[in-house]
Amino acid sequence: NAGVTQTPKFQVLKTGQSMTLQCAQDMNHEYMSWYRQDPGMGLRLIHYSVGAGITDQGEVPNGYNVSRSTTEDFPLRLLSAAPSQTSVYFCASVNSFGFTEAFFGQGTRLTVV
Amino acid sequence: AQSVAQPEDQVNVAEGNPLTVKCTYSVSGNPYLFWYVQYPNRGLQFLLKYITGDNLVKGSYGFEAEFNKSQTSFHLKKPSALVSDSALYFCAVRDSAGGGADGLTFGKGTHLIIQP
C-alpha cells in the first residue's frame, strides 16, 4: 500500500548540475503532477501528465523536463540546476475522475548551492 | 482562471477552543473544493472535500468545512482544537470546467498553532 513514492528525500546540488527526481505511484492513476513548495507561496504546478506519453506545462515549467513512459512513473529532470530551484518538490497523482482527491508523495527537499 | 485565497498566514487558538481557517475561491464553473494538512517534513494529507450536496462536509480528525456559494468561501472548522492539530493547512480548488491534469490551484497555506 505504498501510494506515491518519491526519491530522494534530500539532495544538494551545485549550480549547473543536473539530476532526476523520481516519482512512482501504484494506484494506477492516470493523472500525475509535480509541484514545488516555497515559503509563503503555497504549491505551484511545474508539469503534469494526463496519461502515459502525454505531458504538459504548468505554472512554473522553466528549467524542468518531464516524461511519462509508463502509468506508474513520472520523473522530473532538472537540466542545469540554479539556486532559484532550491525548494521542496512534491509529486501527486489522482485518478481519472476530476472530483477525487490527489495523493501526494513525501517530498524531495532540494538545495542548490 | 481559478484562484484561492487564504487571508491568514497564521491562526492561533487555545486548546479546547473552536478553530476556523478561512478560504475563499474564484472559479468560472462549479468548484470542487479540498482541504489538505501538512505536518513538518511530510507530504500533504487529504482532510475533506466538497463536490456537491450538503454544504457542511465532515472529514478526518474531527474537521469539517462549510461551503458557502454566495460568499465563495470554504472555511475549515473544528469544534475543539487539539495541540496535535498544529500544522500547515492548504485550501485547494478545482474548476469543474477543467484545466490541467489534476487542475488543482492551492492557496498559500495557513499555519495553525494550538496553544496548550
Kindly state the number of beta strands of chain B. 12
Task: Tally the helices of chain A.
Answer: 0
Task: Provide the residue-averaged pLDDT of chain A.
Answer: 93
Major β-sheet of chain B, in short?
Answer: 6 strands, mixed
| N-to-C CA distance of chain B | 41 Å
By helix and strand content of chain B, what is the structural category? Answer: mainly beta
Q: Tell me the overall shape of chain B.
A: globular
Binned strand content of chain B: over 45%
Mean of residue pLDDT values of chain B: 91
Give a quick account of the main beta sheet of chain A: strands, pairing sense, barrel closure: 7 strands, mixed
Percent helix of chain A, as a range, is under 10%
Query: If helices are DSSP runs of H or I spanning 4 or more residues, what is the number of helices of chain B?
Result: 0
Low-confidence stretches of chain B: none
Radius of gyration of chain A, in Å, reads: 13 Å
Q: What is the N-to-C order of secondary-structure elements of chain A (H for helix, E for strand)?
A: EEEEEEEEEEE
Number of strands of chain A: 11
Helix/sheet category of chain A:
mainly beta
Oligomer: heterodimer
Please tell me what the overall shape of chain A is: globular
